[in-house]
Fold each of these.
Amino acid sequence: MLSELLNELNIRLNVECKNWEDCIRKSGEPLLERGDITEAYIQAVIDNVKTAGPYIVITKGVALPHATNKVGVNRTSMSFVRLGTPVYFGNKSNDPVKYLFMLATTDTGSHLGALQDLTEFLERKEFMAVLETAKEPADIISYIKLYAS
């Protein structure tokens, strides 16, 4: 479940970035600080986008930075970053990005429930409003815990 991967310590609000690479680095900072990932994982995410394009921009204004579990992941976890100023990733359909959910997994399956929850939440206007107006990380976590399946 999403509530098991995302916690208040992994949420940053009103972050400013210079470009999409900086956004990926900043979305990884909470996980890096807690030892969930290494710098190698963040670089793998950046390298993937350089190679495959901005596939991580999954819907209007939302990116899901991630890479293979083969490099730099110590613990399955997720972070959330709300940008102060949206940033262009090069995805014509869904740019600019304002919200980033970085996902790091140690295997190929344990995160699927959380992804399903996230997908369902992103379809709710109420959830998107919470992401936009949250004053502190607890506002987001409270909503997730209240409405998680």
Note: The domain at 2-147 is CATH 3.40.930.10 (Mannitol-specific EII; Chain A).
Amino acid sequence: MEVVKSIKESACYIAFNPQKEEAQGFDKTGGGYPYQLPDGVQIQIASERYRAPEILFHPSLIGLEYAGMHELLVTSVSRCDLDLRRTLYSQIVLAGGSTMFHGFGDRLLNEVRKLAPKDIKIRISAPPERKFSTWIGGSILASLATFKKMWVSKQEYEEYGAGILHRKTL
């Protein structure tokens, strides 16, 4: 698993225009990214470099019937109050390890622009610590006294089932 993670982090990227990448084709040129495995064997990583992370935008590539990240973002914003939407579109912050792919922010911006209202200014920030920002945010949230009231113990869950979640959080 560590080898896969290493390949993901060192070789993969988000293609701004996947169709153009396909047309140019790593496989056709014989080129690729040289990667040395722990046993010393060197492999070439070709179109997998951009095809693997493409599932973030098109989960259907691996048979999943989900919307892409860009579609989920636009849908989420569109379900918020009308007066908040402009602010939300102008303050998109990338968080999590998969946003570290080279080209992720540019591609997300391009895809969101296609779906969002044309008169909206879209701004995406990519803080350098975003790989761990979800954990940092979770840590901060878990340390808040008000959040502790929402915790559900195993015993409570076993006694009341999923209904306890609604009771404690609403």
Note: Strands lie at 33-36, 42-45, 92-93, 124-125.
Amino acid sequence: IQHRLKKGNYILRETDKSGIFHIGNSVDYEKKAEAYRQKTSAYIELDSNPLWSVFDKVILLLNDLRSKKYILPWQLDKMIPKREKIQLAYLYVIPKPHKTGTPLRPIVSSMNMPTTEISKFLDKLIRPIFDKHARSTTIIDGVDLIHRLEAYATNGHLIPKTYLCTFDITDLYTMLPQEESLDILIEFLLQY
């Protein structure tokens, strides 16, 4: 299969949501990915690898926080990146064959960035607070949606004239401004 794909200049990718595989022309994938990069202006191709520069800055920042006693030794240990495990984030795409023209869904894999351990640490601190206060307005998955609709019906809110709608937000992650997102997080944490 791999030989035939390579010979025919095809790419085999798992699809978005359905879990099935899609065979596409590699030139089409490249064109769609480039069109997406140009449309959103959210991604750039790097001329050099900034991984070690970012790594050094993270180490410097964490050590500075520790020297000023803003974090404890065990917190530093939890957040410090492991040199042998880090890698630069990268962009890849998966097809959405259920949509017209089979657009591509961009995914940034940043699981091993120098900042990953900091993110995990902060998530463990913030997630319980967020879940406690946002649970009533958050639907986790399809099962949760069904339970919410059943409760809605039981409370008499689901009637024949009830309208349900769905939203398809295009380019959600590239539309979220980082500074504004941080301001919202700070406001949330100050409130709760």
Note: The chain has a mean pLDDT of 91.
Amino acid sequence: MVIKVEINDEVMDAQLGERVLAVARRNASHIGFYCDGNGLCTMCECKVLSGADQLNEPTETEHTWLTEERMAEGYRLGCQMSLRGAGSVRVLTRAEEMRRQLDAVLSPPPGTTVSENMRPLLANIAAVNWQHIGRWPANLLTSMSRLGLFTVLWPVTDLNHLLDDTVRITRRLLAVSDGSGAPEERPAASDPA
């Protein structure tokens, strides 16, 4: 069953049960990733704009890494979100959200100022840093218990896949910014996220 998922204002095809991170990576969407879907790096954090009822419930991993405030605002980890319903889902990745916030500071949209556009960016940076720095010691121990020391120290299982997707996303961002288009989608594979 093909499901439509909107990531960063772009509609993509997905499969029932597929993780949002896998959909984003396959389509070279602007999303962070490093830990191969282990829920360790939180770089794939997304804000669910609509369709939360079409996703699995937040996982223990998400409750470990994301503050209750972030979760109440709709933030989830792309590597932990699985498509469980056929309805539409809309998400904005943290990477894209922060890129847009920075763009609004550097080139304020008409009717806005640098200082008013700076507030959301700084609030987002503070929230993300608190997730990592303020909660790190306890979360590190929880992650080591869940994943093992080796996976925590080196979560990458397929370095070529990591590098390939990083290059594809970077090229796509550069192509979109200069108007030359976007690279083609990587063929669907098993869901390594």
Note: The radius of gyration is 17 Å.
